[in-house]
Amino acid sequence: MIQRPPLAEDKLAMLIGGRWAAAASGEYFESFDPFTGKAWALVPRAGVADVDAAVEAASQAFRGEWRSMTASARGQIMARFADLVAEEAENLAVLETRDNGKLINEMRMQCKYIPQWFRFFGGLADKIEGRVIPIDKPGVFNYTKLEPLGVVAAITPWNSPLMLATWKLAPALAAGNTVVWKPSEFSSVSALFFGRLFEKAGFPKGVVNIITGFGHEIGDRMVTHPRVAKVAFTGGDATGRRVYQAAAGGLKKVTLELGGKSANIVFADAKLEAAIPGLVSGIFAATGQTCIAGSRALVQRSVYDQVVEKLVAFAKTARIGDPLDPDTQVGPITTLPQRKKVLDYIGIARDEGALQLLGGKVPEDKAIADGWFVEPTMFGNVSQSMRIAQEEVFGPVLSIIPFEDEDEAVAIANDSIYGLAAGLWTQDIGRGIRLPDRLEAGIVWVNMYRATSYLSPFGGYKQSGFGRENGRTAIYEYLQEKSVWIDAGNSIPAPFVQR
């Protein structure tokens, strides 16, 4: 086993108003390493009083130095922050892996890539422009300007803690907002170390606040606090609905990035040497714990048996082990409750008559017995009526579904309450252009899968949520438009008639 040195601090602290502090209650909770199954950090257990303090600090910062700072100056601070993240990328990646069990190779990639978001959106900060409108009223000058919303509540999940937080923080800060960020209670350690870099980069006190705790204890207060103007949430669809309903009471702006049951479609003319790894990457990378997981493999019937044979053979070679080992390809499930959920769904699939082709249980290797593992699992001959084909498992479980032609592939792919992503494997250029228009998904990959960029929008259709993260459009999720009218002719108004 790779050595896992303890943290230098016995207890971690939250960032509120530029001050590192314990929870008002003085309570802590344990954060567990999914590979060892043991607690490795003590994290403050925030309560409502801590939420109120963080929102008040963010509100004061919004009305103070941050609001009066030029957009160019904000962008420069974000650029400095990007450089600091780049310097600390390796340390942050190790913290992420220990806290959520994802592969060190992936966490390194993410942490090295995160600076690009802050550089990109920091560069956009002074390019937020309004319009001059040639208004149809003589002697009147009309223009618009885009302004920040105020305090943003950012609530993020445990599967890619820093990356998914960055997708919210970078555009929110570039637009001039302040933030109260609550990472998942299952992966808070990296967030608190990330927070130290905001201080070092020169962000004014209170611009970024980080509180840690349990969603059922503080989530509602974050969403309903009267001084929170916007809620940006990534997580499960059931929780997302509760967030949306709670935010509606205050007529708050909301961005929701929720679940998925994405179809990864293989046509008979596809290059199978590319499609097979693409199917594996879509579901077993990140141990299936990603909203864009290609958890439904749709395979054209004429090559179904061939694809299944190759797919099972390829997946059998996946190395399960310590996520801190660069040679490991499949790590543990992040939480014990999630592992139980995955195993329960595997049992449901068997009961419903799906054909188990691979995996389906906890690994027997004693070297990883303490970890929260589930074997990569595949089910064949799955029908759309099965729960395994309709409900998000969020684990390394692949449903393989046959189809006859394009129309049936599209019908099966769209037969879902979700619409986050889809994959398409074909050498037919016409099909590659034609089918994305028919797929009800916010992201469609053709002859590739599971790629994201700060340059391209990310978000879903249907119950996968609404609003977009990444790309130029993301910054407008954190802005509001103001129209300014000026009488340039010094005319005398008619007081009882609308002008």
Automatic annotation (TrEMBL):
InterPro entries: Ald_DH/histidinol_DH, Ald_DH_C, Ald_DH_CS_CYS, Ald_DH_CS_GLU, Ald_DH_N, Aldehyde_DH_dom. Its EC number is 1.2.1.8. It is an enzyme of class 1 (oxidoreductase). SUPFAM superfamilies: ALDH-like. GO terms for molecular function: betaine-aldehyde dehydrogenase (NAD+) activity. The active site is at 257. Keywords: Oxidation, Oxidoreductase, Potassium. It holds the Pfam family Aldedh. Residues 20-484 form the Aldehyde dehydrogenase domain. The keyword Aminoacyl-tRNA synthetase does not apply. The keyword Acyltransferase does not apply. Belongs to the aldehyde dehydrogenase family. This is Betaine aldehyde dehydrogenase, NAD-dependent. It comes from Mesorhizobium plurifarium. The gene is betB.
